[in-house]
Amino acid sequence: MRKVVRTTATWRKTNKWAVLDSNQRPIDYESTALTTELTAPSHVSMSVYEPIAARSTVAGYGSATRRWYDRGMKLYTRRGDDGTTQLFGGQRVNKDDLRVETNGCVDELNSSIGLARCACAHEQLTVILRDVQDRLFELGADLATPEGQSTAMPRIGGPHVETAEDQIDAVCQPLPELENFVLPGGSDLAARLHLARSVCRRAERLAVKLARQETINTHALIYLNRLSDLLFAMARRANQLEQIDDVPWAGRT
């Protein structure tokens, strides 16, 4: 049996930790759960851990988590070598499980938004993109937590959807009325945002499919739907800010 510790802190390795096999170290890095749960073998007293107060920072791993990792934890655990991974709550599933596939697509979406941020020199858009990346990290944790498994896990809710709608309204306010369909492109930033939008649509389709098989958070679906609209609006705003026209769809002549 493994002892699961839910923390508001992270834990510092002591010398006793060094004798443990890598498969007995905290759960897989591949799971968002690392930021919330650490595991220890039942034969190890929790007194060998010393809590370090920390709050989440870059990429969801708190600075104290990074210090703890630097003190000896390896990136690989070998626990996923059999093609399985762990959800919040301890359930192990195949890595091609639809819930994992949906979560992976949200991760891909977050990466594509990070790529767009790298090309963004406009404060309004940069602030929104950073906020979206934070929400997507929470969305990943939400999707990795089957309903009823954890009440401590942050969930996407109505206020997040309302924030996305406010962001859409703010971005669209200075834009001219859309009279034609537009093709992805224009500026480099707009093209990256359109790419993120298409990944978002795929994540939404997977989430819809998952919702037919299992119970998931309804607000997670709604947020993904709003987010694709937000990314479309931001792509148009990016072209406007960079004084590049949208690329209209010409259709058949």
Average pLDDT confidence is 77
Strand order of the largest sheet: 1-3
What structural category do the secondary elements indicate?
A: mainly alpha
The coarse overall form would be elongated
Low-confidence stretches: 1-70
> How many alpha or pi helices?
6
How large, in whole angstroms, is the Cα Rg?
Answer: 21 Å
Query: SSE order in H/E notation?
Result: EEEEHEEHHHEHHE
Q: Major β-sheet, in short?
A: 2 strands, antiparallel
The percent range for strand residues is: 5-15%
Please give the alpha-carbon distance between the first and last residues.
69 Å
| Strand runs, count | 8
Helix content: 40-55%
Please, could you describe this protein's structure?
Helix 2 (98-118) packs antiparallel against helix 5 and helix 4 packs parallel to helix 6 (218-241). This protein has 6 helices and 8 strands, in the order E-E-E-E-H-E-E-H-H-H-E-H-H-E. The protein has helices at 63-70, 98-118, 123-143, 158-172, 188-213, 218-241, and strands at residues 2-6, 9-12, 37-41, 50-53, 84-86, 92-94, 182-183, 247-248.
Please sum up the structure shown:
Helix content is 45%, strand content 11%. It contains six helices and eight strands.
Give the SSE map.
Layout: E1 2-6, E2 9-12, E3 37-41, E4 50-53, H1 63-70, E5 84-86, E6 92-94, H2 98-118, H3 123-143, H4 158-172, E7 182-183, H5 188-213, H6 218-241, E8 247-248
Antiparallel strand pairs: 1-3, 2-4, 5-6, 7-8
Record keyword descriptors for this entry.
mainly alpha; 8 strands; two-stranded antiparallel sheet; two-stranded antiparallel ribbon; 6 helices; 11% strand
